Amino acid sequence: MEQSQSRAGDLSWRLSSHPITLLFFLGFRISSLFIYLFGSIFTENLYAASPTCPYPILVFILTILLLAADFYYLKNIAGRRLVGLRWWNEVDAASGDSHWVFESQDRSGSVESGAPSQNATDRRFFWLALYAQPALWLALAVVSVVRLLNPIWLSLIVIALILTITNTLAFSRCDKFSQASSLASSAMSSGGMAKSLAGGLFGRFFRG
């Protein structure tokens, strides 16, 4: 067998259970950074030469649209299909208090529950991209402050950080909630098996 053969968990989109979803997810994650980086570099010179140049505003709007699309796609589609996680915020009509709601799909792959198994490649891609993007935007914020760039770029980075960090925190909490639920269900299942085993042993003892 060749060493170069792909293995489960490798970062190859061909190993994904949902390759189209994964490609759109990565595309939205990368495109906003790409437009910001190259757009801001090329338009800074144009803006310095002509302050009425509309290109910085166009880059700003396009990047915001891509960030919004990434936020929606990750929150409602990619998270659910790639790792079985979803979250949303609900507001109590009576009290006006808001709270986060987490939803997780059983991906243990157990035969008893008929649950699907988690694709290791999807999971690695998801969590790497989830944490990498806010880290990159944070680095760009530092560069923007140090270089004293146009305030329009710093405001754009602040919006990007709010959107990306919100999704990162929400999915991290959702994953912890999912793991806690799995441990609880495993403990209950183990307890039920232990009770059944103990009941069988006592029954045989007293009947014997």
Please characterize this protein's 3D structure.
The chain is mainly alpha-helical. It is 70% helix and 7% strand. The protein contains 4 helices and 2 strands. It has a two-stranded antiparallel sheet. A hairpin with a 6-residue loop joins strand 1 (85-91) and strand 2. Helix 1 (19-49) runs parallel beside helix 3 (120-147). The longest helix is centred in the C-terminal third of the chain and has 57 residues, at 151-207. It is globular and about 60 Å long. It starts with 18 loop residues before the first helix and ends with a helix.
Question: Which series of helices and strands comes N to C?
Answer: HHEEHH
> What is the radius of gyration?
24 Å
Largest sheet, order of strands side by side?
1-2
- Strand proportion, as a percent range, falls in 5-15%
The largest β sheet comes out as: 2 strands, antiparallel
> Mean of the pLDDT scores?
78
Distance between the termini: 57 Å
In DSSP terms (H or I, runs of 4 or more residues), the helix count works out at: 4
| Helix percent band | 55-70%
Number of strands: 2
As residue ranges, the low-confidence spans are: 183-208
Instruction: Briefly note the structural class of the backbone.
Output: mainly alpha
Q: What is the overall shape?
A: globular
